[in-house]
Amino acid sequence: MKWITRERARVDRIPCPWLISRFIDSAPEFIFVPARDVLTEAKRRDAIPYDIPDIELGHHGPECSFDAFVDRYELSDPALRALALIVRGADTDDRGITPESAGLYAAATGFQANSRDDFDNMAKQFPMYDAFYTYCQQQEKTAPQPHVLFVCQHGAAKSVVGAAYFRRLAEQRGLSIGAVAAGTEPDPQLAAGAVKGLAGDGLQPSPARPRPVTLYDLDTAARIVCFGCDVSPRKAQRVEQWDVPPVSEGYEAARDRIVSNVERLVAELAGGR
Q1: Among positive and negative, which fits the CA dihedral 77, 79, 85, 88?
Q2: What pLDDT score does 273 carry?
Q3: 77: alpha, beta or left, given left = phi > 0 and alpha = psi -120 to 50?
Q4: Cα dist from 235 to 21, 146, 218, 222, whole Å
Q5: Residue 130: helix, strand or coil by DSSP?
Q6: Distance (Å, rounded) from C-alpha 180 to C-alpha 40?
Q7: Which domains does the chain have, with CATH numbers?
Q8: Does the predicted model carry a pTM greater than 0.70?
Q9: The pLDDT of residue 236
Q10: C-alpha to C-alpha distance for 1 and 147, rounded to whole angstroms
Q11: CA distance 46 to 11
Q12: Which residues of the chain carry a pLDDT beneath 50?
């Protein structure tokens, strides 16, 4: 994917590409342009803009763009959440939010001054964020919650229904495994039939808008479920293919097939509990 932001990066516009490269996109292309050109160039180059005003992957209230990435792509790793707080302090006026934030701001300022351009800046700073992430892992000492990854082509219906029912049934069985839904070619919006059907079943779809499969999804998945699409696991996870009729041709029929499979999967992962 292509990612575009303002040139002359210091804080936020460096850890965001680091986060993308390490946890989201296996082959990212980064573009830096003058601030006034970001949205125009994003449209022209079919790139995802970040860290500019009034966009999803930007600042919202006290939170910075790094926070927005963590939330949008459901990066639930406690160490990443801790790192997000450090970055937020370095990138905003709230430098005292963590003991590390002021030092990160100072280092980022020096790297910006010593770098030929934004790409040189990224190359110099990425090892620093690797180190900060390891530091946060050591401080947190809590492993990310394992999850089942549900994937369909558009990330808008079957995967969302599967993840919603897995969460419900896993909770009922006392199973500490989450579920996420993603798409290989995500649509702009969730399918209306899936949203309406889940609401009728008393369930909330998540995410609120389809998103792509990320590196983090693949690295932390306890099991991967695909609906007529293919993904390449990065580890030795088991991948299942579920044959389910289109939700657009009838929510109840698709849901019943999915729930039957989810019940089997939850029982298997619970190990008879």
Answers
A1: negative
A2: 52
A3: beta
A4: 18, 14, 8, 10
A5: helix
A6: 32
A7: 2-140 (no CATH), 147-270 (3.40.50.2300)
A8: yes
A9: 82
A10: 24
A11: 25
A12: none
